[in-house]
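The pair is quoted verbatim underneath.

:::
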Amino acid sequence: MNEPKPSSGRVGITEAARAFGVSTNTIRRRVKKGHLTAFQRPQPGGRPKYVFDVSDLVRVFGEPDSDYEKSATARAGEMPKHVTPQKNTENIDRNMELKEKIWRLESDHLALQARYDAQSRHLEDLQRLLTPRLGAPERLGERAARYLGDLARAFKGDKA
């Protein structure tokens, strides 16, 4: 039996028309008359797509065209016409550019983070230097006693 071998045993209306050498309108008329059974395959966001069992198509139209099978095997490796092929090297070059850009951004980020940390430490140091000490002030008597003690030691020659 010479028939196309789709993975599910079902083909779309265009594929069936090509395989059996009939027009899509002929297939639609046969569905309308009840000779063929169409199965609905839901399409998100669009109108439903109908598929047909290959065995049902063979029953109605006979064996598929032999030149279709030859062209089907030749087309198996081809891309659809609506898909524009992209060169693999373009994708590789673009990926390399993006990786290099990411690397530069990461190194810039690390440099800016180090600069921010250094400035933060510098500001903390300045704040410590400029903030007055909040200790309790010495009483006048204690300060005078310390001063007189320092003077006495100086006259005696003590170096303390």
